[in-house]
Amino acid sequence: MSSAAFSSISLDPGCFGKGETTIRKRDGRRLCIRGSVASSPQSLQFANTKTQKSEEIVRIGVLGASGYTGSEIVRLLANHPNFGITLMTADRKAGQSIGSVFPHLVTQNLPDMVAVKDADFSNVDAVFCCLPHATTQDIIKCLPKQLKIVDLSADFRLRNVNEYEEWYGQPHRAPELQKEAIYGLTEVSREEIRNARLVANPGCYPTSVQLPLVPLIKANLIELRNIIIDAKSGVSGAGRGAKESILYTEIAEGIHSYGITKHRHVPEIEQGLSDASRSKVTVSFTPHLMPMSRGMQSTIYVEMAPGVQVDDLYQQLKIAYEDEEFVILLDKGAVPHTRNVRGSNYCFMNVFPDRIPGRAIIISVIDNLMKGASGQAVQNLNLMMGFPENSGLLYQALFP
Ligand SMILES: NC(=O)C1=CN([C@@H]2O[C@H](COP(=O)(O)OP(=O)(O)OC[C@H]3O[C@@H](n4cnc5c(N)ncnc54)[C@H](OP(=O)(O)O)[C@@H]3O)[C@@H](O)[C@H]2O)C=CC1
Ligand SMILES: CC(=O)N[C@@H](CCC(=O)OP(=O)(O)O)C(=O)O
C-alpha cells in the first residue's frame, strides 16, 4: 500500500518535553498524543483508517505483525479510538504490506512492514511485541527506554531467571529488565499494570487456568495439593510458522497430548497460584492439541477444603468477577463452550460438583488469540495509557 494514502502531519516543537505532544494536522486541527514524546521535530504519518479515531492518539508499533498474534492486534486496533499504528515489523515478510500477508486486513491503510533492524521508533509511543520467545529479550533491551511495552512472548513472565533457564533451555539475556516487568493477568494485577512500563502478557494456558483458580486459592476454598489441569488448544496457539507437527494431516480428525509433565507453562501457572496462596503450589498439567484453529479449554479438577461446598466456589467466583467485563461466570449448570468466546476477549467459566464427594470440576474457556494473547494485551495497554479498559475490545464471539 503506498504512503500516498496517508495524511502527513508535523509535530509542534513547542510541546516537546511536556509528557504530551500536540500535533497539528494540515487542516489546522490539533491532535494530542499522550505518553512519551518524540525526540526531535519530524514528519509523522498516520493511517487513514476508516474507523473514527479520537483526538487523543497513542502511536503504536506492532513487532511481529506478520504473525497470528500481531495480526490480531492490527485487527483490534482498527476499531480502537485511541491507538493508531505507525510501525509494523516482520521477519521473512519484511517489505510486504499487511494486506498481502493477511488479505482479511487489506482494508487497513498502514505502512508496509519493515525488519526490526530497520524500524524507526521515533514515531512510536508504545509497542506490542509479538515475537518468538528468546528473540524478544534481545530486541526489547534495545528499544528506546521511554516506550511502553506489552510483550506477548514468554520472555519476561517468570520472575526467577534461573527458572527461565531451566524451562526454556537457555540463560535469560535481559535479567535487569526482568526485574521491571509486571505480569499482566489484568483482573489480578490491574493496579500494578496501570503503572508499568513493561508488561509480560500471560500465556494462553496460564490465563485460562489462573482466572478461575486465583480467587478460589486466595479465599482458601480449595486444597493446594492434587490440582489437575487437562487443557486443550486450537492450532493457532503454535503460531503461523510452518512446522510438520501442525500440518493439517497431523492435526485433523484426532487429538493428542503434548509436553506431558514438561510444558513450559507449568512454572508460569505455579508462579501465579503460589503468589495467590503465598506458598508453593504444584500442579499436574497436560495440554492437548485440538483440530480447530482457535479456542482453548481448561478442565480443572480440585479438592475442596474441609467443609466447603461447590456452591461456595460458585459464590466466590461470582464475587470476584461480578464487576469484571471480560470474565463471565455462567449460570449454574451451564457448560462453557470455546465457540461462544471465539474472536472475543471473554473468559467464560463455571464450576460443577464431581461425583466423588469433596471434589469439584472447573471449566474455563478463552480464545487463545484474544484473552489468551492479543485481546488481553490491548486490555493491558489501555490500562497503561489511562484509557477505558475495554477500548477496542467490544467484540462479541463469532458464531457459528
Ligand atoms: N499464538 C498464540 O495463541 C499465542 C502466542 N503467544 C506468544 O506470542 C508470540 C507470537 O506468537 P504468534 O503470533 O503465534 O507467532 P507467529 O509465529 O505467528 O509470528 C511470529 C512473528 O515474529 C516474527 N519473527 C520471527 N522470528 C523473528 C526474528 N528472529 N526477528 C524478528 N521477528 C521475527 C515473524 O515474522 P515473519 O512471519 O515475517 O517471519 C512473525 O511476525 C510468541 O512469543 C508466542 O509464544 C502468546 C499467547 C498465545
Ligand atoms: C498449541 C500450542 O502449541 N500452544 C503453545 C502455547 C501458546 C502460548 O500461549 O504461548 P507462549 O507461552 O508461547 O506465549 C505451546 O503449547 O507452546
Can you describe what's shown?
The protein is an alpha/beta fold. It folds into two domains: about 210 residues, Rossmann fold (3-Layer(aba) Sandwich); about 160 residues, Dihydrodipicolinate Reductase, domain 2 (2-Layer Sandwich). It has eleven helices and 17 strands. The strands form three sheets. The protein has a seven-stranded mixed beta sheet with strand order 12-13-11-14-17-16-15. α3 links the parallel β7 and β8. α7 packs parallel to α9. The two termini are about 35 Å apart. The site of NADPH dihydro-nicotinamide-adenine-dinucleotide phosphate has 30 residues, from α1 and α11. It catalyses: N-acetyl-L-glutamate 5-semialdehyde + phosphate + NADP(+) = N-acetyl-L-glutamyl 5-phosphate + NADPH + H(+). One of its GO terms (biological process) is L-arginine biosynthetic process.
Task: For the structure shown, list the relevant keywords.
single chain; 400 residues; alpha/beta; Rossmann fold; Dihydrodipicolinate Reductase, domain 2; 2 domains; 6-stranded parallel beta sheet; 11 helices; 26% helix; 22% strand; binds NADPH dihydro-nicotinamide-adenine-dinucleotide phosphate; binds N-acetyl-L-glutamyl 5-phosphate; NAD(P)-bd_dom_sf; oxidoreductase; NADP+ binding; arginine biosynthesis; AGPR_dimerisation_dom
